[in-house]
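Long-time lurker. I teach an intro course on protein structure, and each term I like to show students one example going from raw sequence to a predicted 3D structure in C-alpha cell notation. This year I'd like something fresh instead of my usual example. Would anyone be willing to generate the C-alpha cells for the chain below so I can use it in lecture? Attribution to the forum is fine with me.
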Amino acid sequence: MGVDSTYGLACLGKINMEYENDQDLMVRFYKFVAKEEMACEEAELGPDEYSERLQMQRSLHQQVRYMARSMERGSSIQSTVGKVVFLVIEVMFKELVKVVFLLIELMFKELVKV
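-- Reply from a regular --
Happy to contribute to a lecture. Here you go:
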C-alpha cells in the first residue's frame, strides 16, 4: 500500500492515547473503520469476489453465534469453542489493521491533494 507500518501504528497509538477516555468516539471510530473497510473491499474486489467475501464473513458470524450459544449452555466443547473464538477474533483484528492502514493511506492522499 505504500504506507510504512511503523508510522501507521504510531498514528493509531496516538489516536488511542488521545481519545482513550472517550468511549463513544472510539466506538464510532471503529464502526467507521469497519464501514470504510467494506467500501474499500467492494471497490477493490469487484462484485463476485466481494459477494464471496460477504458470504464468508456471514458464515463466520453464524459460527461465532452458534459457539457462543453452546458456551452459554455449558457445552462440553467450551475449551475448543474458546480457541475458535480466539482465532476468529485474531483474524478480525488483522483485517481491522489492514483497513486502518488503507484509511491512513487515503488520508495522506487527500492531504497531498490539498
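Some talking points for your students: The chain has one domain: 5-113. The chain has a mean pLDDT of 76.
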